[in-house]
Amino acid sequence: CDGRTLRFRGGGSVPAPLWFTAGFPALPLDGELWIGRDRFDALSGTVRQLDPVDAEWQQVRFLIFELPGAAGSFTERVEQMQQLVAQAAVPWLQAVEQTRVADRATLMQQLDAVVRAGGEGLMLHRADAPYLTGRSDALLKLKPWQDAEAVVVGHTPGKGKYRGMTGALQMAMPDGKRFRIGSGLSD
Question: In 3D, which of 142, 137, 138 has the Cα closest to residue 111?
């Protein structure tokens, strides 16, 4: 968000009602539109309508998690985000809650609580990090490791430069679910 226009990750503008961003601070905000856990399809339907429906947008919140290009450490930017939200006094503009943890055990308890509540994982941000674009070790995604057993039941032929080679492995899980694995195979 640039203070007035919400944008999708790809850069296109989100057709939000004018009232939604009217009280937002006039500076870049990085965040996400949110209705609630397991409500992505409803949110997607709301934000992709060319003529926004006010009743649907009244459920939406904009959760700020970063201030693009802002100076200072992440800790300082968190304080700035909280001040901006308080000054704006727009109920649907909220700063994402940030929590410090003292040790690995506490971190894993927090991850477990988020996953049990339906979340995907946690974003770990170095408190002293400046604002950075792209991938870095200052911001990491922590998700539970998931694995399962599957059996190779076949393969699909490769295409293009992989013609005459294996394109993907066909897999079967004990519950009968089938899927393909294609990435990670060497030439």
Answer: 142
Cα→Cα distances 76→71, 126, 146, 173, Å? 8, 12, 35, 48
The 10s digit of each residue's pLDDT in 55-80 is 999 999 999 999 998 999 999 999 99
Per-residue exposure over 32-63, b if at least 16 CB sit within 10 Å of its own CB, e if not? ebbbeeeeeeebeebbeeeebeeebbeebbbb
* b/e per residue 117-133 (b: at least 16 CB within 10 A): eeeeebeebeeebebee
Q: State the pTM of this model.
A: 0.73
- d(Cα 134, Cα 47) in Å, to the nearest integer? 25
CA 15, distance to chain mean position in Å, is: 20
Torsion over CA: 176, 177, 178, 183 (sign): negative
- Of 56, 66, 80, nearest to 31 by C-alpha is 66
Contacts of 5 (CB under 8 A, 6+ apart): 13, 14, 21
